Fold each of these.
Amino acid sequence: MHSERHLTRGIQLTVKRALDVALSALGLFVLSPVFLLASVAIAIESDGTVFSAKHVYGLNNQHIRLLSFRCRTDRTETLAGQFLVRSGLDRLPMLINVLRGDLSLVGTHSYILPPQHLDNQAALPRTNDFFRPGLFSYETDQSDTIEADLSYISNWSLLLDAKIIFQHLSSDHRGA
């Protein structure tokens, strides 16, 4: 019985990863004109790179660089940045992270530690041992992200992932 449940969960996780790859590739393809326009607007408005990266811990607490559009110059939000942040499009490059396998479309929260603690894995919650952080994350009425992650892990299913995606797309929630 236990091995049958384990096999079913393994198949579901394989389907989850296949959906992550297919949907992130489709999203990048469909939204490529927006991606290009945002990149050009950022490049015209300010010097520097088009992307910014924050360092977070992913699956098995591996260090990853989470991509987003660069929306600030010298701590001041640019005009393009204001639009990208308000529309949620600043996170569009995270689809690249999903495609690479750093993120999942739905998963646990990503945890950021100050640079001086990047190697201190003992300080991390043990919620990313089984699931990748998600572009969208499970939210509860409580503000405790660790409790929300533990609840997501214990109740995980493909149906729960679909529910979370629809909740985020139909509201102002912004995960990861």
Amino acid sequence: MTETIAKALKKEIVIPEALKSVIMVMLFSYFTFAAAMIKIYIPGNPVPFTMQTFVLFMAVYYLSAKENGISQLIYVAAGMFGAPVFAAGLTGALILMGPTAGYLAGFIISGILMSYIMRKTGKLTYIKAALIFVIGGFIILALGTIHLYLIYKMPFDKAIVLGFLPFVASDFVKILAAAGFYKLKRQ
């Protein structure tokens, strides 16, 4: 009997690739939600600091462009259907008008683009990973800022001061940290 148990414990569990993909997509969707709960508000700014961009950068190592897009769409859809997953605390269709809507759109677009670029990059290095994350971070901040300008009718300079500039330093730190994991790239 001891041999049977030992044999069973040593047996490798093989997860089909399609199931592995679904698990990873759902996992990173959940990680994005969890990272939204780590938030710091700056007085006078409707958009908090979160760890979501770091999670998105890390997802690029594991998810294809399609998987990353689906992961972020699931996250946004969960909030639109009422799950309390967003940093701003809004749920439902209100999120489309909330102060973080542009950033959420940026998560989807930059996640797809960064994963696509990552897969097309030859040998990945720290510098290449950092540059990919800079592109993705810029897209997120740009879309968030444009949303504040267009929907909230902020003067463009104020939208940049509230929606872009405060996040550059923290995103820079997240980019440097995430790029350090460049050896995790899924082949």
Amino acid sequence: MKELVISHPDNDIATKNILKRIEEISNIKMVKIERSEQEKLGTARNHAITLANGEYICIWDDDDWYDSTRISHQYAVLKNGPFKASILLNVLLYNALSNKTYYSDYQQLAGTLLCEKQTLLQTSYLNQEKREDIYIIQYLTSQNVLFRIIDMPHLYVHIYHGDNTMGERHFHLSSMLLRVMEENTNSQVQEVTDLNQYVLIQ
């Protein structure tokens, strides 16, 4: 069984309204955490992990897109094996401002992490708003419990929309080193990331 753990600032009325609507039309199990506006993202992540009831924690950033089979693929490589966590090494990066999609080679993005809760509790996110996850992957690597999944970029699309935490400079520096995807893939990414198709039923 899956559980959705959502942490948001207590003054975020839009998110409150969305969660209320989701509860009206869905039976999904949710843990809702309203935090102080001043609380740093890293601390919010740590708190959410502590309150989660599942055996595994799957990181899910609200401004990126994930394939519906992402969790099952990442869990499959851990089930009955020695590893405690998995990440995607190849992902797609989509610039929503220029409408271009890029293929990313071998980036250990903490935003694609699936990890056993007890293992994740042995480390923590930093109490800061940016780069709060820089030591998470290092810790899992040092413990030799991290499985790296290659050649499945369709499971995750990192979206640059102009208001990302890391900012425009970070995205452009990254994209300079990446391969631009062909128009067919670019069109598919544009289609699945189009927010108009995800409007909640009235």
Amino acid sequence: MKRIIAPSFLAADFLNLGKEVEMVNNSAGEWLHMDIMDGHFVPNLSFGIPILEHIRKATKKICDVHLMITAPEKYIEAFAKAGADNLTIHIEASPNLHRSIQHIHSLNMKAGVALNPHTPIDFLQDIIEDIDIVLLMSVNPGFGGQTFIEHTLIKIKQLSQLIHDKGLHTLIEIDGGISLHNAKAVFDAGANVLVAGTSVFKAKNPQQAIIDLLNA
């Protein structure tokens, strides 16, 4: 089964962003994960389109953009122009989800749907065949450095079964509280992509930390 580590730039040193991107460029991490927060859908502000534009110029790796914002449909084209390869929007913030997924695909991006910890897997039944990625939040969204919610392992297994039953190849991405203590259990439950912020960027050797997570 495909394993991918996506270092989360929410935990990066923004005074040395170029060096942080270069570190990931030379690592086993295949995706660069960027959490975009608006202070409304989640109780925090992060970074926006200009940061993505600069990171895009500095890397050939997959720019994995996670919109934790209200009305994400308004910004799909802007993030496509800024260089997103994957664009993930929240099911809780998207009243016209199918239309938004179509729009993302029309701009040659992979489309992802994110679920907050309280949102059941069943909510994906009518959209799963149209998307490339499901991102399960394993913490309450808004802040880095939180503790992994153990119930997420059950949700991963439920989602993996749904994908299997429909004969799909949808990637399962997990975001929040990922560390060496739980990476193996998360992969074993059926996840393909682990978003890792603190456990990578705060490690003494971030590149080795990525390898250790991949081999957990």
